[in-house]
Amino acid sequence: MLSRMISVGDKIDLQALEGPGESGEEPAIYHSMVYDILSEDTLELTMPLEKSKLVLLPVGSEYRMISYGETGLYQCLVRVIGRRKSDNVFILGVRLSSGLSKYQRRAYYRYNCTLDMQVRSLSREEIRVLEKKLPFVPQPGLPMEKGVIADISGGGLRFVSQQRYEAEEFIYCAYILVRDGKKKEIEAAGRVLSVRELEEKRGTFEHRVAYCNLSRVMREEIIKYIFEEERKIRKKENLM
Length: 240
Known about the structure:
The chain is of the alpha+beta class and 240 residues long. It has helices at residues 2-5, 124-131, 216-239, and strands at residues 11-16, 29-37, 42-46, 49-50, 53-54, 62-69, 72-86, 89-96, 101-102, 111-121, 145-152, 156-161, 170-179, 182-197, 205-212. The protein folds into two domains: 2-102, Pnp Oxidase, Chain A; 111-231, Beta Barrel (Thrombin, subunit H). The chain has three helices and 15 strands. The protein has a six-stranded antiparallel β-barrel with strand order 1-2-3-8-7-6. It has a six-stranded antiparallel β-barrel with strand order 10-11-12-15-14-13. A hairpin with a 7-residue loop joins strand 14 (182-197) and strand 15. The two termini are 29 Å apart.
């Protein structure tokens, strides 16, 4: 049954089970890939990387595993049972400690990227439109600031800029996605969830944003872009 839902090469997320700490940060998420399926409850995964460095997850530690494959998204709890190296590949052995179930996403998968964007605060008129749950149409001609997107999803984005936007502030974001060789402009209103100044780069601020009243068409464009980019990455990894 396991092999019907998960395949070698499927993308894997391992989410630490600990809740947010005192800093308010989200539980750590490690990105991996299915290396081998040993039995109906045992898998081998590639060792996660973080900033090009191996993350040696402790034997005995437990994680929520989410798989992204052609048959759909699934989740379960897994426990690390061993680590080894084979042909210069560092491998993590895990055993399922719960049943595998369909993953019903409350949040969208975040794709790490570097994309230029334009951003500004919403005008009072634009905020009133959002409050009435009407389709968002940006007012033309208002000055924009530059930003750089660090990750995107169908539900929001994370970006950095030298302009600070406060938590709960409503902003307008515009950026370009290239899919199938065609450019698609994404225009979205969003609410700032959190903001922090980067310790390593003072005067630069990181913002987490949730989209507001994003159209179904725009959301689907973003999700399709993410899946295409992920597919390209997997293809390159398989050729290595």
